[in-house]
Write a structure and sequence with these properties.
The complex is a heterodimer of chains A (99) and B (455).
Chain A: H1 3-14, E1 20-21, H2 22-29, H3 33-45, E2 49-54, E3 63-68, H4 70-94
Antiparallel strand pairs in A: 1-3, 2-3
Helix pairs in contact in A: 1-4
Chain B: H1 6-21, H2 27-37, H3 43-66, H4 90-105, H5 110-121, H6 124-127, H7 136-148, H8 151-158, H9 164-177, H10 184-191, H11 198-208, H12 214-229, H13 242-253, H14 261-274, H15 280-284, H16 296-316, H17 320-336, H18 339-342, H19 347-361, H20 365-392, H21 397-431, H22 443-454
Classes of the chains: A alpha+beta (99), B mainly alpha (455).
Chain lengths: 99, 455
């Protein structure tokens, strides 16, 4: 899994139940649209991401919103744990096993 | 909502176009990106957003074109809010097809093919097209000539063939069939100075036309070429090998310098009318062909300088008659070079000036005045030629207009062809099918295809 995908998963995991917009995700993860959308498309393809159209106000086109599915949430947590463990192991190695 | 500025409008247009060519299963994603565009802060940020998003959609469009199986619903969508338009309407298909067929039908007319080739000829260097490819009309003349053993037509092709070995073979064949065409050797040798056949052509030419300086100039050029190949180039005439000096001496002693341009024109006229050839490229032949070998003028110039120095040495030694002979030889050769070259051959004027001085010293004032007059005439001719050269490269309105028209029409044809192909490619890409009834060109595509076909 790419670091960019992990970043997106991390962002979703921070607010598991909240729906978010594409532009909002792009700003919060620092990913450009050309990177973000393929990740979202892939996550959706593997049923890890839930998508929905919502109408915000009259005359404004509906917006696509996203949140992780249960499977997606599980995967995000797993990856977060692995990532944290990896960070701890690296920190321990760097500080001579005192961590 | 942010008001629409130019970058934002471009961004929206770009993204909408990307959506129009995107596969069905990415449509919702495309519209999602477009919907977000309205909320992106900053015009240039919106344009960047659009570029990135369009890139994703185009990538999917290309993938679905290359791998048609990907047309299936590979990406689940959050709804079916947007759907693609129906397949290509019949009138649109008919318009596009008529335009394409009409533009291709032009090529049926020989006049159009001819004009097309002439217009593209101007861009040949830019496009790096295969210049060794033979003109199709010339190829057909060659086939007929070989079948009918037509010596003149074989010679005609030999003078224009794009490959040296084939040109030499055809020249040999033409002369074998008709020995009177032996002069063809001279023109082919001038065109292809390094073909091995020159070794037996030059003696044959010397026997055929013993008074002509051309075979000697061809020999001198062959020696120059050998020196270039051996990386042993000497710029001073006195350092050149004795064979070069004797070839140039023979050229200077010759009674005439015939480049056989008259025979060539006659042959061209006969063959072109016999084969009903009308291609301007064939008729014009080598427009830059002056008949002399490439090094012919510079060889003559260097050798004349050498002779001039030798004559001055003889003059200082008191051998005035030998010096005068040398000066006269230079002046004689200068006249042989003809109007195209003699005006640049400044040694003629120098030779006459020296002759005037020499005869004045010998108390022959009438001769001195005559040579002074000739020297003055040469000087005037050189000035006139220099002025003409400046004018030739200066603003000649008609020639410039003709060249510009040909160049522009060639550019328009190339651009129109490229636009037509790009439009067709975009239509196929958008439709993701090569089947005509499934094509879905937009109004823009139809307009572009039609206008490029018309152009």
């Amino acid at each position: 899994m790419s670091p960019q995908t992990l970043r997106v998963l991390e962002r979703f995991a921070e607010r598991p139940t909240a729906w978010c917009y594409g532009y909002e995700l792009s700003r919060e993860t620092g990913l450009k649209s050309g990177t973000l959308y393929p990740i979202l498309m892939r996550l959706a393809k593997f049923s890890l991401l839930e998508t929905k159209w919502i109408s915000t106000e009259d005359g404004v086109p509906p917006r696509h919103i996203y949140r992780l599915t249960l499977n997606g949430m599980k995967l995000a947590r797993e990856k977060q744990t692995i990532s944290r463990t990896g960070v701890c192991v690296r920190r321990a190695a760097l500080s001579g096993g005192k961590a | 909502m942010i008001p629409l500025s130019l970058p934002r409008r471009i961004a929206a247009f770009l993204l909408r176009y990307a959506i129009s060519i995107s596969p069905r299963d990415t449509l919702d994603w495309g519209h999602a990106m477009l919907a977000e565009l309205d909320h992106v802060q900053g015009n240039w940020a919106a344009l960047l957003w659009s570029l990135g998003s369009a890139g994703v959609l185009v990538k999917h469009a290309l993938l679905s074109l290359i791998f048609p199986s990907r047309n299936g619903p590979t990406i689940p969508s959050g709804g079916n809010l947007f759907s693609k338009e129906d397949s290509m309407r019949k009138p649109a298909l008919a318009i596009t097809a008529v335009c394409v067929v009409a533009s291709l039908l032009f090529f049926v007319a020989p006049v159009f093919r001819q004009a097309f080739r002439v217009s593209l000829f101007q861009w040949q260097f830019l496009l790096h097209t295969d210049r060794s490819r033979m003109n199709p009309e010339l190829e057909s003349i060659l086939q007929k000539a070989e079948r009918d053993h037509d010596a003149e037509a074989l010679a005609f092709v030999a003078l224009r063939h794009t490959q040296s070995s084939e040109s030499a073979r055809l020249a040999d064949e033409a002369v074998r069939l008709d020995p009177k065409l032996i002069w063809v050797y001279a023109i082919v040798a001038v065109r292809w100075p390094f073909v091995p056949e020159i070794d037996h052509w030059v003696p044959a030419l010397e026997r055929f036309d013993p008074q002509n300086a051309l075979p000697h100039l061809i020999t001198a050029e062959k020696i120059d070429g050998d020196q270039v190949l051996r990386a042993n180039v000497t710029h001073r005439a006195e350092d050149r090998p004795p064979s070069w000096q004797s070839a140039m001496a023979a050229a200077f002693e010759s009674a005439k310098l015939d480049t056989y341009s008259g025979q060539r024109k006659e042959l061209d006229r006969r063959v072109l009318s016999r084969y009903h050839a009308g291609d301007p490229e064939l008729i014009a032949g080598d427009v830059c062909f002056y008949g002399l070998p490439s090094y012919g003028f510079s060889d003559s110039y260097r050798y004349a300088k050498l002779v001039l120095v030798t004559a001055q040495v003889l003059e200082t030694q008191g051998d005035t008659s030998a010096a005068a002979e040398k000066y006269l030889a230079i002046a004689h050769f200068g006249k042989l070079l003809g109007p195209d070259f003699s005006a640049r051959f400044m040694q003629t004027q120098q030779a006459y000036t020296r002759l005037a001085a020499l005869t004045a010293k010998s108390s022959r004032p009438a001769e001195a005045a005559f040579y002074s007059f000739l020297a003055d005439q040469e000087r005037q001719a050189m000035e006139q030629a220099s002025y003409s050269r400046c004018r030739r490269f200066g603003p000649n309105q008609v020639a410039r207009w003709d060249a510009d028209s040909a160049r522009r029409s060639g550019a328009v044809m190339l651009l129109s062809g490229a636009l037509l192909f790009a439009t067709l490619f975009a239509v196929f890409l958008r439709s993701r099918s090569l089947r005509l009834n499934l094509l879905r060109p937009g109004r823009l595509a139809i307009a572009l295809a039609a206008s490029s076909s018309v152009a």
